[in-house]
Amino acid sequence: MPLLLLDLDNTLVDRDAAFRAAVVAFLAEYGLPDADVGWVMTVDAGGYTARHEVAAALTDRYGDVAPTAAIRALLDHGAADRVVLARSSREALGTAQAVGWTCVIVTNGRTAQQEAKIRHTGLDQLVQGWVISEAIGHKKPEPEIFRAAAETVGASLCGAWVIGDAPHADIAGANALGLRSVWVSDGRRWTEDSCRPTHIADDVASAISHAISTPGQGAADPAPLEPRSGFRS
């Protein structure tokens, strides 16, 4: 069965929205300025800033008011406790499996936090497996993590699609292995020169629909990406 290799954060689930909600609650609990939400989100950088660096920045700014345990809880559980799976994403995964695709989550991050998101949203019941960078010692875009995903379900990468929101991790990883890919843009404009997706979709449900309805096996040339107005960078 062909593989769908799916990113987790800000692809299958809106990790940033969940973390933002956690930050709002944290600031309110300790009487900190609402306006600091933007600062925290910038420091967090969509989860790509190392957690110890985010913790150090928050402690430096809020350490006189918020206890270390509260800052740690925000970073360890804030997003995982609030993340949700959209109905459209759930239905798209169900459709993919119904027509014979094997769905595997491929995510960078810490094992405890990423597995908490997967189980909290019910994704553990909707995919055939997952691989997490901390657990296997490789992270996207390294080819080893994609190969590990295929091995997890006893499948080949031949004919696989990679779906994700991160050009440098998901799309670059797919390009390196000669796999087809869909970039989940969420309204952004494609600006990378070093790699290109096969297709661009606004959301993960549309991305899954495109992948499972496109005939053919193996790699495909990236489609021409024309600039589109009305998209934020």
UniProtKB/TrEMBL annotation:
GO terms for biological process: small molecule metabolic process. One of its GO terms (molecular function) is hydrolase activity. Its cofactor is Mg(2+). The keyword Protein biosynthesis does not apply. Keywords: Hydrolase, Magnesium. The lineage of its organism: Bacteria, Bacillati, Actinomycetota, Actinomycetes, Kitasatosporales. It comes from the Bacteria. Residues 213-233 are annotated as: Disordered. The keyword Magnesium applies. This is HAD family hydrolase. InterPro entries: HAD-like_hydrolase (IPR051400), HAD-like_sf (IPR036412), HAD-SF_hydro_IA (IPR006439), HAD_sf (IPR023214).
